[in-house]
Automatic annotation (TrEMBL):
Family annotation (CDD domains): CuRO_1_2dMco_1 (cd13860), CuRO_D2_2dMcoN_like (cd04202)
GO molecular function, one term: copper ion binding
Keyword DNA-binding: no
Organism, scientific name: Aquariibacter albus
Main location: periplasm
Ranges of Pro residues composition bias in the record: 443-453
Residues spanning the signal sequence: 1-29
Lineage of origin: Bacteria, Pseudomonadati, Pseudomonadota, Betaproteobacteria, Burkholderiales
Listed name of the protein: Copper oxidase
């Protein structure tokens, strides 16, 4: 974690166009220092330096905001501003966010804490912050024009309330939100229970991230904010696989995953190799009697889901959105399907006119994952670029790996590398004799249906109509 002063001296992410929204040094001097985190790697959990103790969360490819204690109040400082976010190696996006990143830092507090959040607006337009899912005074809810005036550029406003219940929440604007959320303004919020809670179990690892989507043309860097459904980049914490860090656990660890959705569609989040229980939503912890085992949970727009499981199966397990287009990057929506079309001789002719032309789609799209040298416009994320121990991983977007190891140090989130499979435990080619196809049992001839003789008065087949009796109960 570095101070904002050092970050800006090093050439941080604020653009020149924000100069008009600058905040005076005198006004900033009395506020807590707005910290930023370097890079895009997952930062270690922030152990609470004061206040009531809790087990901190790990923000995937993100970090937790520090605070200062003043007269028993936890004070945070968020700066709304343009940022540059590396979404994948070699691809950066010009977004809006908080404290130098999108999403902004995770806020962690304890049930019963009085919290004071300063918001400094360095955007070119007015904004607010809505504290999604929180119970708080109406005037702190952050709806421009309804519960407060919008915060003009260049001003610092303050929100203050008590974190009244534990749970998984988020924050985002409710001012020009079509633009501001499409540009990446969002962040995670976790309220830990103040003591043992009958519906909240202790876990060994607690990981959180937000689902985001963007429409950024190949070769460009700014999202198209008018897009409603046809997004081409699907991300976790504004990162695209293979730029999403793995989730790491020690075999036998109790793991909690917290997911929030601020995209424009639902996401069926699917975990391989394990079953989980949905133990919480943005409404709070779920009663144990309402839970059942799942391997996929659908996270709708504006929802939070908290999933608990025991990481008892070793290996590298896929964890992803189960909408197939959401595990690819930089997709085009008007590409024709060319599967099965005979292109023989065509590519050579086209190459005489377009030397860099490449055949796409004759055998499906998996070949794209092997085209590491394929020329792309500058600042474009490849559709599929991950590489595993057995070759290309035909995935991108909303995808990462749960890595469960028997010898991973407790609480250590570092990547242990790829799983080394014991002999005989990997699918392999069959070299023996081809198995004979099982013959289907001979079918018995169908019994002849009894024939009803036609009525004497009808030259054709008789049609009989039976009307239901006694209402609709027999339908």
């Amino acid at each position: 974690m570095v101070s904002r002063r050092n970050f800006l001296a090093g050439g941080g992410a604020i653009t020149a166009g924000v100069a008009a929204a600058s905040v005076s040094r005198v006004a900033m001097a009395a506020l807590p220092e707005p910290a930023v985190a370097p890079g895009t790697a997952t930062q270690p959990p922030l152990a609470p330096p004061n206040g009531r103790p809790y087990r901190p969360v790990l923000t995937l490819n993100g970090w937790t905001a520090p605070w200062r204690m003043k007269d028993g109040v936890k004070e945070f400082h968020l700066v709304a501003e343009p940022v540059v976010r590396e979404m994948a190696p070699g691809f950066t996006a010009h977004l809006w966010g908080y404290n130098g990143q999108s999403p902004g830092p995770t806020i962690e507090v304890v049930e019963g804490d009085r919290v004071r959040i300063f918001l400094t607006n360095k955007l070119p337009e007015a904004t607010t912050i809505h504290w999604h899912g929180q119970r708080l005074p109406n005037g702190m809810d952050g709806i421009a024009g309804l519960t407060q005036p919008a915060v003009p550029p260049g001003q610092t406003w303050v929100y203050e309330f008590v974190a009244r219940r534990p749970g998984t929440f988020m924050y985002h604007p409710h001012a020009d939100e079509m633009v501001q959320m499409a540009m990446g303004m969002m962040g995670f919020w976790v309220t830990h229970p103040k003591g043992r809670h009958p519906w909240i179990q202790e876990v060994d690892r607690d990981v959180c991230f937000l689902l985001n989507s963007y429409d950024i043309d190949p070769g460009s860097a700014t999202p198209k904010v008018m897009t409603m459904l046809d997004f081409n980049l699907w991300s976790w914490n504004s990162r695209l696989y293979p730029g999403i860090d793995p989730i790491v656990a020690r075999q036998g660890d109790k793991v909690r995953l917290r997911v929030g959705n601020l995209t424009m569609t639902n996401h069926p989040i699917h975990l391989h190799g394990h079953e989980f229980f949905v133990t919480g939503t943005d409404g709070g912890p779920t009663p144990p009697a309402s839970r059942w085992p799942e391997v996929t949970v659908d996270v709708a727009v504006g929802q939070m889901r908290q999933m608990d499981f025991v990481a008892d199966e070793v290996g590298d397990w896929a964890f992803h959105c189960h909408k197939s287009h959401h595990t690819m990057n930089a997709m085009g929506h008007n590409v024709p399907t060319m599967i099965g079309v005979d292109h023989r001789g065509l590519v050579d002719k086209i190459n005489r006119l377009v030397p860099d032309y490449m055949l796409m789609g004759e055998r499906g799209m998996a070949d794209m994952s092997e085209m590491a040298g394929m020329p792309l416009p500058a600042n474009t994320a490849p559709m599929m670029a991950g590489t595993g121990p057995f070759g290309p991983i035909d995935m991108g977007g909303m995808f990462t790996v749960l890595k469960v190891r028997p010898d991973q140090p407790p609480g250590d989130p570092r990547d242990p590398g790829w799983w080394k499979h014991p002999p005989g435990t990997v699918a392999r080619p069959w070299t023996g004799a081809a198995p004979e196809a099982a013959a289907a049992p001979a079918a018995s001839p169908p019994a002849a249906a009894p024939q009803t003789p036609p009525a004497a008065s009808s030259p054709g087949v008789e049609v009989r109509v039976r009307k239901p009796q006694g209402g609709h109960g027999g339908h």
